[in-house]
Amino acid sequence: MQTNNLFNKSGKVSNIYMDKIVFNYLGVPNKQILYGPGIGRDAAALKWPNDKILIVKSDPITGTIGNIGRYAVIINANDIAVMGAIPKYFMSVLMLPLNSSIEDLEAICKDIDQAAKELNISVIGGHTEITRAIKQPIVCGSMIGETTSDGIITPQSKPGDKLIMTKYAAIEGTAILAWDKENSLNKLIDEDTLKKAKSLIGELSILKEAQLVLEIGGITAMHDPTEGGILNGIFEICIAANVGANIYEKKIPITPETSKLCQILNLNPLKLISSGTLVITAKSEYSDRIIATLHSNGIPATCIGEIKQEKTVTLHRTDGTQEIIAEQNQDQLWNVA
């Protein structure tokens, strides 16, 4: 076999192969499918009776070992919320390696249960097994949500729309590193910084902010930036909407603990997995009101750029240089041994 036919890096499959291979094998067409798979699309939408739209999402947790039940529920719920829906039903495929303990199984199930209760979600089924095929626990989650035909949000960003983000960059990546690499990090950073970094696991859900901004209106896209971080999340919106964007680095908020961890581990926080951040594009005249509403509800929000006609995503760096952002095939998380 030729080496150029091998996938030799962890992370998402490149958009090239998603378009060339994955999206070419989709079974039979169905008129109930309103919104199927595509780059920058967070979930599928199915037409349902009584003007209901079902939003359906699947996502695995592979980049961490700790708290994987919690991550599975919240990350899948986020992708439902950015489509304008309320997440309601969760299913999981839980795979454990050989020699896992009963306590390992119970800890993951408790994680799922607690996160589901916090978000008012029902766990309705799934599959659980022990397998020699893996070396660490993996949870593959699926979430079903509901909205109406006039409530669904798909990427419709237009030139002139404002680019808004909530909270901070690299929330999920910071939490994962702080929990999974605690033993090595506590020798490199102070206890208070590590504690604050670990606490970011409580900031992963974007359901509250998604529901708040939907009530205001003017939303042309929402996205939960996972692998590849905030920059890849914006890139995916632009691919889906067939537009470009200007992003201003100095406006992107990053917590001191994220900056510290990334400095020590030589990571780029703008390209580090960032669930917990909601990326929004909105009509210009709604931008100030959206940000003010989020702030009044205790959610930090910042305008970090705008959508443009030219189909390039440009990062205007703090030092005055510019970087054209391409697809991030591998998240910064995978660079940490």
Can you put this structure into words, describing what you see?
The radius of gyration is 20 Å and the shape is globular. The longest helix is centred in the N-terminal third of the chain and has 17 residues, at 102-118. The protein has helices spanning 15-20, 68-81, 102-118, 171-180, 182-185, 191-199, 207-216, 229-241, 256-265, 287-296, and strands spanning 33-35, 44-48, 52-61, 86-97, 122-131, 138-148, 162-166, 219-223, 244-248, 279-282, 301-308, 313-316, 322-325. The protein is 31% helix and 26% strand. It is of the alpha+beta class and 337 residues long. The chain folds into 2 domains: 10-148, PurM-like, N-terminal domain (60s Ribosomal Protein L30, Chain: A, 2-Layer Sandwich); 162-335, Phosphoribosyl-aminoimidazole Synthetase, Chain A, domain 2 (Alpha-Beta Complex). Strands 8-10-7-11-9-12-13 form a 7-stranded mixed sheet, sandwiched between helices.
Write down how many β-strands occur, each being a DSSP E stretch of 2 or more residues: 13
Q: What's the CATH C level of the largest domain?
A: Alpha Beta
Q: What is the straight-line distance between the termini?
A: 28 Å
Largest sheet: 7 strands, mixed
Side-by-side strand order of the widest sheet: 8-10-7-11-9-12-13
Content-based structural category: alpha+beta
Report Rg: 20 Å
Order of secondary-structure elements: HEEEHEHEEEHHHHEHEHEHEEE
Number of domains: 2
Shape: globular
Let me know the CATH homologous superfamily of the largest domain.
PurM-like C-terminal domain
Helical coverage, percent range: 25-40%
In CATH, the topology of the largest domain is named: Phosphoribosyl-aminoimidazole Synthetase, Chain A, domain 2
CATH architecture designation of the largest domain: Alpha-Beta Complex
Indicate the low-confidence ranges by residue numbers.
none
Number of helices: 10
Share of β-strand residues: 25-35%
